[in-house]
Amino acid sequence: MKATIKFLLRLFAVLAGIRERGKRLPDSPERILLLMCHWIGDTFWAMQVIPAIRKRHPDAEILVGVKESGRALFTGLLPENAILIFNGITSDRTREHFSLRRFVKDVSTARKRKPEIVIDTMGNRYSALFAFLSGADATIGPEPADEFADLYSIRVPLSRMPSRHLICKPAVIASPLTGYDGSTEIVPFPVKSALPDDAVFRKWNPFPEKPLAMLLPGAGWKRKQWSAARFRELAERLEQNGFRILLSGGPNEQALCNEIAAGIQDCAILPPSLEEVIALLPRCSAVISNDSGVAHLAAAAGVNVIALFCCTNPEFCRPLGRRVRVLQADCPALPSGDSHFCNGTCCDKYHMNIEVGKVLQTLEELMRSKFP
Question: CB under 8 Å to 8, separation ≥6 — which residues?
């Protein structure tokens, strides 16, 4: 039954997409919409294409479609009215439920803005269909893109990616507009805060002489998380070494942060506010995180970052920055090569067995390192 449905969806895409093929991009587009309704890390990678599009098409209005959770990333980069909240486009089917009502509402919002070009940096069945229904003159998306890749006017093969790292994916997808050929390294630019840095810093660090260590114990999947016990031991030892500890997580991770912080005197739990986290990151001496979105923001901000990996492959999704160190669990099933994830068969035995001492040693070496 599942195979039949997939075949029918594919057939629909092929038939409906026939009229889309061969459409040319406008030489001077007035309005370009980028779909990047990912989670934080992927949205951060996708937004890196905006300066290149602006450079090539300085007179075009650039719109972005994002989830509410990603709005804060665009402070100072785009006007408020250029940020369209599309919570109806599903990014990850394992963690999100599809709502037809919200999807239709978001399509209507997009059509009212009359984009000439839609660039789909997501490349799943929902975003491809959304781009097709947006009313744009031309749509650009990746090949492959689930069952609906044929709906794009222009399909860009992901085989053009110059490396496995996923920051290259949106750059390659947008290449028909930017001319990106993969020959230059993509260095992520840091995001800006809408809040005054000094005020937020004073709010969360009553002892400004103390270095800040931000711990990010959550992650999108449970299997990506270092244990609460290890994070607690790390927090205790960092406190002993004179650090002020900040714990940060999303709305569903506050209980985890409370568990880690219990009994630690010089410790605070940040509310699930990305704006405050962005304001604090440049003032941190260290960020220790699982494979999660905020780690990428910290790396781009030039902070000392220790990224803990287990079931995901850092070749695809490590934080990019000069002051980043990646530590991997000692597991025989670690993903490598073309594998983005492991199959999870060894996680119960080996899951995140990185020692606290190794994290502290790596952090000490990193903080002693000299960078131009």
Answer: none
Q: Are 285 and 344 in contact (CB under 8 A)?
A: no
3-state secondary structure of 195: coil
Which domains occur in the chain, in start order?
Answer: 2-178 (3.40.50.2000), 197-368 (3.40.50.2000)
Sheet holding 154-157, edge to edge: 83-85, 61-66, 31-35, 117-120, 138-143, 154-157
End-to-end CA distance of the chain: 59
CA–CA–CA angle 327, 332, 337 (5° rounding): 75
- d(CA 318, CA 41) in angstroms, rounded, equals 10
112-171, pLDDT tens digit by residue?
Answer: 999 999 999 999 999 999 999 999 999 999 998 777 888 999 999 999 999 999 999 999
Residues 296 and 319: beta-carbon distance below 8 Å: yes
- Write phi, then psi, for 220 (nearest 5 degrees): -60, -35
Taking the C-alpha atoms of residue 363 and residue 119, their distance in angstroms, rounded to an integer, is 39
Strand residues in 112-153 grouped as ranges (E): 117-120, 138-143
Taking the C-alpha atoms of 123, 142, 297 and 365 in order, what is their torsion angle to the nearest 10 degrees?
Answer: 120
Q: Is 145 helix (H, G, I), strand (E, B) or coil?
A: strand
Q: Which of 272, 247, 245 is nearest to 257 (CA)?
A: 247
Enumerate the β-bridge partners of residue 83: 64
| CA gyration radius, the chain | 21
Instruction: Kindly give, in sequence order, each residue whose CB lies less than 8 Å from that of residue 53, ignoring residues fewer than 6 positions away.
Output: 32, 34, 60, 62, 174, 177, 178
Tokens of 216: 């990010």
Check whether 306 has a pLDDT greater than 50: yes
What global pTM score does this model have? 0.92
CB atoms within 10 A of CB 155: 22
Which helix (H) or strand (E) segment holds residue 83: the answer is strand 83-85
pLDDT higher than threshold 50 for residue 5 = no
Q: What is the DSSP string of 219-276?
A: -SSGGGPPPHHHHHHHHHHHHHTTPEEEE---GGGHHHHHHHHTT-SSEEE--S-HHH
What pLDDT, on a 0 to 100 scale, did the predictor assign at position 76? 94
